[in-house]
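hiii so um. not sure if this is the right channel but i have a protein structure encoded as tokens and i wanna go backwards to a sequence. like what aa goes where. can anyone help
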């Protein structure tokens, strides 16, 4: 009974409070942070291109790194953004050679536009992201999923800033087109 009361008490704490308690040695408090934010971290890694098993492994490694560096978290941003940046950098570090090859690769043939929303209007962001080239998906995910600036992405990928900006712009333009409501721009295209 005491354990369940303690768990309820943890769920009522803010991330900054949990991080401060974890920095003082609180493993249960850090466990609560992992419970709250691991789906978001795994989701980012999947959007960046990791398969499910790799996303799970990288998320675990990111949280281990975050635990080791928890005293560096000052609460100036959100905890989830901080750990997402750690995860994104781990992913890129492991794929640095592949990422450079991907960014230099020839663009893919444009695929036929299809709807990325169901009848209830729910958007399939993952499906739309997967329709982007690997370079566009990576740059968009790093900027909007991990919260990195264009400059940070360029530095992380060892790629010219203009190239990163181009990938982000093309990727966002494609996402806007693919995620537009049926009656808008995409509505005039034949479906089939």
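sure thing!! here u go:
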């Amino acid at each position: 009974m005491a354990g369940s009361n303690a768990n309820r008490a943890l769920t009522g704490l803010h991330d900054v409070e949990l991080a401060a308690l974890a920095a003082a040695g609180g493993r249960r408090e850090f466990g609560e942070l992992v419970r709250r934010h691991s789906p978001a971290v795994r989701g980012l890694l999947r959007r960046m291109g990791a398969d499910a098993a790799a996303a799970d492994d990288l998320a675990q490694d990111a949280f281990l790194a975050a635990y080791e560096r928890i005293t560096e978290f000052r609460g100036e941003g959100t905890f989830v953004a901080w750990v997402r940046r750690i995860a994104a950098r781990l992913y890129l570090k492991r794929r640095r050679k592949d990422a450079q090859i991907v960014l230099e690769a020839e663009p893919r043939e444009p695929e036929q536009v299809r709807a990325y929303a169901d009848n209830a209007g729910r958007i399939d962001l993952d499906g739309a992201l997967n329709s982007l080239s690997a370079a566009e998906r990576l740059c968009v995910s790093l900027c909007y999923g991990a919260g990195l600036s264009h400059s940070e992405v360029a530095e992380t990928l060892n790629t010219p800033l203009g190239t990163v900006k181009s990938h982000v712009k093309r990727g966002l333009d494609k996402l806007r087109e693919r995620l537009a409501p049926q009656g808008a721009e995409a509505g005039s295209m034949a479906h089939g």
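oh and Residues 27-48 form the longest helix (22 residues).
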